[in-house]
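We were asked to recover a plausible sequence for a given structure. The inputs and outputs are reproduced exactly as logged, with field labels preserved.

PROBLEM: sequence recovery
POSITIONS: 186
GIVEN STRUCTURE:
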């Protein structure tokens, strides 16, 4: 909905900046977390870079990606990083704030590619240490519902929960977006 994006058109009152800062924005599907994260990135100095983890595997996902691009518009740069998120962060450091959207899609990509999730998370952790430019991560809060009935879904839910905890622990700030409203958690 355009309403949530419009609600974040001006920077939040608590915007602060320090080199290499890291923000985690979490929430449910269609909660407004991407629009909020975009507003935060635009409030920081420099040209923002959108690091996309989604892949257009079908028509519906192609349409979602197009809608995100249209909403962002200029001045955003874009890097597609469905698997090598650590490499994308290293390559874009020093060029302005980066917005990674999203960690849970990245995790899904890793699982389908049968990559070692712990090793990928460790590479990501190393990549964010010592960054000069700010990083804003968007992720989904997936563990607030019922226990999934199949093994793959439970494995994903558990891995996403662990990844979110690890990122939140080292983040300077954590925001939970609910129905278009951000709530500061950390």
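RECOVERED SEQUENCE:
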């Amino acid at each position: 909905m355009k309403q949530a994006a419009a609600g974040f058109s001006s920077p939040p009152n608590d915007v602060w900046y320090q080199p290499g800062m890291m923000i985690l924005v979490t929430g449910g599907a269609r909660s407004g977390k991407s629009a909020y994260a975009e507003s935060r990135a635009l409030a920081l100095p420099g040209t923002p870079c959108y690091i996309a983890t989604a892949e257009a595997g079908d028509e519906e996902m192609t349409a979602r990606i197009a809608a995100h691009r249209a909403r962002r518009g200029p001045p955003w740069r874009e890097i597609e990083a469905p698997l090598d998120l650590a490499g994308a962060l290293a390559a874009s450091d020093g060029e302005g704030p980066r917005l990674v959207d999203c960690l849970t899609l990245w995790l899904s990509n890793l699982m389908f590619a049968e990559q070692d999730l712990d090793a990928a998370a460790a590479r990501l952790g190393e990549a964010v240490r010592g960054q000069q430019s700010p990083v804003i991560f968007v992720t989904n809060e997936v563990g607030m519902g019922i226990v999934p009935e199949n093994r793959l879904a439970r494995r994903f839910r558990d891995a996403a929960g662990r990844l979110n905890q690890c990122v939140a622990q080292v983040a300077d700030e954590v925001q939970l977006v609910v129905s278009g409203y951000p709530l500061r958690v950390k």
